[in-house]
Amino acid sequence: MVDPFEIINKFYEPNSELWNILVGHSQAVADLASEIVHLHPELNADERFVYEGAMLHDIGIIRTNAPSIHCFGEADYICHGTQGSSMLLSEGLERHAMVSERHTGAGITADEVVSLNLPIPAKDYTPQSIEEKIICYADKFFSKSNNLKEQKSFERALKSVAKYGDAPRERFLAMHATMAIPSIV
């Protein structure tokens, strides 16, 4: 069992503006992910791990340059998943690191890394485990730059993923088909 706040507080100043953004966003994602776990027992998801992974999925934002959300690092924002993976691996949290690495968009394939010329190593970053898929899906319904607790509509979440092409859209729709819940309209 991992205490997400113990890990977050190693990298973030507690109660700073960025800490509040990270924790507020992550808690909203964790709440929706937990709702999905409860409403879909047939998925056999590890509820505790889903909570931990959701709380830690965006830990890498601190190393990115996104001033609008108080991030003043050097990496491009698209790198927050790989940066977070590195941070979590340094804590011995391999399974959590994979959540961080694979949650961006609706996942990113090696071909998409190359075709979009993304500044990350060309490999598969699509969620593999059911827990990774639940967290990735739930993450698409919350922003870090607007009201942290306001849940996007399904249409808005789909639109944000679909702007990267048909393949991400299809991956998101496949996740939706597996784990849709009444609160996602």
Walk me through this protein's architecture:
The protein has 185 residues and is mostly helical. It has nine helices and two strands; from the N terminus they run αααββαααααα. Strands 1-2 form a two-stranded antiparallel ribbon. A hairpin with a 4-residue loop joins strand 1 (65-66) and strand 2 (71-72). Helix 3 (47-56) packs across helix 5 and helix 4 (80-90) packs antiparallel against helix 5. The protein is globular.
Q: Sheet with the most strands?
A: 2 strands, antiparallel
Structural class: mainly alpha
Using the CA coordinates, give the radius of gyration.
Answer: 15 Å
Number of strands: 2
Order of helices and strands: HHHEEHHHHHH
Strand order of the largest sheet: 1-2
Mean pLDDT: 95
Fraction of helical residues = 40-55%
Gap from first CA to last CA = 33 Å
Assembly of the depicted chains = single chain
Number of helices: 9
